Amino acid sequence: MGFIQVVHEYGLTKLVFVLLCVLLQSEASYELNYVTCGSVVKLLNTRHNVRLHSHDVKYGSGSGQQSVTGVESADDANSYWRIRGKPNHACQRGAPIKCGQAIRLTHMSTGRNLHSHHFVSPLSGNQEVSAFGESGEGDDLDVWAVQCSGTYWERDDGVRFKHSATDVFLSITGEQYGHPIRGQKEVHGMQGASSNSQWKTVEGVFIKPSNEPLRHDEL
């Protein structure tokens, strides 16, 4: 069916309306493909099939800060993290996160940020990863760069998180804790990217982009 015949049958006004609907649907689909600033997500380590998790349990060694682990359960509310801009650099709420962008991951239940530093992790002897700060505010050691293959962090793609201050990758190699967090996997930082440092978003609430003015993304 040619363009002139379509216009004849449907009328120019109807044709414009249909085209507009298609464009809006395409735009909405495009927007929803990406992980955005302000979204609250669970992150699955695809090598070990566990979700990034934290809880108000301190390490018994190293920094003594709040521990970060990997858990198999998909239903645990302590596995939700909010995506935020780095300190003193707000990201636009709903804006897609770019590959290479520096972000913070704030634990929803305790308000502490995913953090790393030159302490030794308790099980594997790699670099400790903890949750640090109060009410979403910590320091520059809370910053991680999102490594992905395209322009933006896509919801279904595997990504890596590289610690901006020490260059380690957020990783899991399978070591398990005993009491009081029996069966949970150690999360740590490792030099060099591998299958142990591959993550993807699973459950969560994804914030849509908006045309609102830039505003801070505090909790």
Automatic annotation (TrEMBL):
This is SDF2 factor. Keywords: Repeat, Signal. Residues 32-86, 94-149, 150-204 form the MIR domain. The gene is Sdf2_0. Residues 1-28 form the signal peptide. It holds the Pfam family MIR.
